[in-house]
Amino acid sequence: MKSGRNDLFYQIIKFSIVGVLNTALTLSVIFILVKELHVHYITANIAGYAIGVMNSFLWNKIWVFKSGDYFIWELGSFWLNVGICYLLQLGLVVVLKEELGISLDFAIVFGMVLYSGCNFLGSRLFVFRKRKLT
Description:
0% strand, single chain
């Protein structure tokens, strides 16, 4: 049982490392597009997350969850999981900015916190869960 807790602990640490690096990548893309290239924030948000999703999938599959099987299923379910998380975060960003008048910068960061938590839960419990080969 102790080994299981250690595995979970290291998995959380690795997921967090990937998450921090991926967050930096995603935010960099979004802020460069918005601030430097004057791309609309929703378009920039989509581009930032699309780049981040592919980066995240590869690192989580290979390093965090060490999943060698079910590539096509995992890729599809990862995109489904991310799609749900993305819509939740984008909805939050739009509400915070448009309805509550919160700064776009803060709205994006709050949205990313929601996205990250949802993504971990979906990845661990749905996408990369351990399966028995039948």
